[in-house]
What does this fold into?
Amino acid sequence: MATILVVDDEENIVELARLYLSQEGYRVVSAGDGRRALELAQAERPDLVVLDLMLPEVDGYEVCRQLRRQSDVPIIMLTARGEDVDRIVGLEMGADDYMVKPFNPRELVARVRAVLRRGPGQAAEALPETRGHLVRVGDLEIDVDRREARLGDDKLDLRLKEFDLLLDLAEHKEMVLTREKLLERVWGYDYAGDTRTVDVHVAQLRKKLSAGQVSIETVRGVGYRLVERG
It folds into this structure.
């Protein structure tokens, strides 16, 4: 039974999430402020965190930052704001996904299920054709079973979804993959037309690949592809 930590200072949001997640068999623990969230994360070691940005005591950004110092626990951020900058900052700080409130609780369950399905140790099963093999593009080498990637002699420090996204692009070298297809394959669901998650993760990967022989190209209006630099 996976444990989900739901962090929100709105009791109705917490209870709605608890109801739907519990019905799916998840164990739910909750916190109403950032300080308590950090305490519970330490004590409960949850399998996933649903985290509101606007929290008393310690805000969601700081909670995310501290969680990322300790582990790779998947984080789905909640925000009531419409500005893209909030979502981008949250993703750049290490969140795996985000949802804008108010949200459909069934969609939350689907997101949780998808993120957990692609957690550590699951990617090799999801991509059986590469199991037990190394994927190489230029000086990029990806060890699927160990979930490690190297650029030349240097090991890349990749978050969960960054690794999965890079692997998918590398397995389809030179092929253009649409944002929608990447969301479906890497995140495991249809993102209802909002593909900013992919764009932010690609931006982070580009920084980490900048010193190597490979790059992620944007095909305007379509998507992305991994290529070797000339």
Observations:
- Residues 120-132 have pLDDT under 50 and may be disordered.
- The domain at 123-228 is CATH 1.10.10.10 (Arc Repressor Mutant, subunit A).
- The longest helix spans residues 196-209.
- The chain has two domains: 3-117, 123-228.
